[in-house]
Amino acid sequence: MARSASKRHDLPVRAVFLVGFMGAGKSSVGRALGERLNCAFEDLDDRIERSEGRAIADIFRASGEAEFRRLERFALRTLLRELAGDEMRVIGLGGGAFVQKENAELLRGSGVLTVFLDAPVEELWQRCAKQASEQGLIRPLLRSLEQFQSLFKSRRGSYLKASLRIETGGRTVDAIAQELGEAIKLKNLRPKKEGLTQ
Ligand code: S3P
Questions:
Q1: Which of 141, 150, 153, 168 best tests ligand 1's pocket when mutated (most atoms within 8 Å of CB)?
Q2: What digits encode the pLDDT tens for the residues 30-41?
Q3: In what order do the strands lie in the sheet with 15-19?
Q4: Cα 26 to ligand 1 centroid, rounded to whole Å
Q5: Burial class of 109 by CB neighbour count within 10 A (0 to 12, 13 to 18, 19+)
Q6: Number of neighbours of residue 60 by Cβ within 10 angstroms
Q7: For 107-158, what is each residue's pLDDT tens digit?
Q8: Across the strands, what pairs with 43?
Q9: Residue of the nearest CA to atom 4 in ligand 1?
Q10: Is 84 exposed, middle or buried (0-12, 13-18, 19+ CB in 10 A)?
Q11: Listed residue (118, 116, 117, 114) closest to 191, CA to CA
């Protein structure tokens, strides 16, 4: 059943940010969660591509990763400023965004809910390989399996600082979105400085 606009305003968190490694399902789960919560979903990388008029892979190639991180920081700041009042939004971040200290602090200070979509690294690798072959998705930081594993290992500690962790290994997008939607709506999760209150 669709939620009315006034009901939507009863939700305790005004935005949910999905974080996690490449292949975690931030965009697909984000879209499904947006539908469940009857609110808009936005992918931060899409915003960067729109404002730059070029693909993420082209930004990396022509301007380098440091410039991409600068654009990412700017896009996140702008988006957070746009979060109006109680309007609920779901946002998917690129795999490196929450690892940047400044971005993580900005999110923590903004009182939004951050959710780490976790999965075994082998499964993340397989999902990325599938997206590359089926959708032609180019990820500039997707190189060898060894490099992928070591980058995941170095980042996982940062992802674990999110308010909530959801295991996604071997699960469907709908099942993950359902669990997350219920956690947000029924358990009345609220972002807090240290962990969550229920
Ligand atoms: C990146 C992940 C990508 C994209 C960019 C950098 C990363 O997003 O933001 O290529 O540092 O892990 P996805 O996680 O959606 O692939």
A1: 141
A2: 999 999 999 999
A3: 40-43, 89-92, 15-19, 113-118, 164-167
A4: 10
A5: exposed
A6: 16
A7: 999 889 999 999 999 999 999 999 999 999 999 999 999 999 999 999 999 9
A8: 92
A9: 94
A10: exposed
A11: 114
